[in-house]
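To: structure subgroup
Subject: Chain for Friday's discussion

All,

I'm putting the inputs and outputs inline so they're searchable in the archive.
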Amino acid sequence: VQLQASGGGLVQAGGSLRLSCAASGSIFRVDAVGWYRQAPDKQRALVAEITTTGNINYVDSVKGRFTISRDYAKNTWYLQMNSLKPEDTAVYYCHADVTLREYDSGSYHYSQLNDNWGQGTLVTVSS
């Protein structure tokens, strides 16, 4: 399974960016998806997620500014970031739990593969 994140860049405070993450591989279904970020000298932390039951959660600091969404048909999810602040500067990582489907010996086999990460995309917000 590969997760390819894109959309980061340099933006002024108050601006907007949209991150995308596309999953590929022997995927039957992308289950929970999320975005995490890691600022310099800080640990990676959850920003937003869509759980397997469809619940959406945000860290308090981005509520009302960021929106997570997904396109089930394309195995892709997004993070729309508005009203960006310098403290949003970080490397953003996409995350997903997936159900795999592989064909072998005349039948399909399903397995769960959790904790998949994209390569990270840098978001820099200037003041």
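Points worth raising on Friday:
The first strand starts at residue 2 and ends at 6.
The mean pLDDT is 97.

D.
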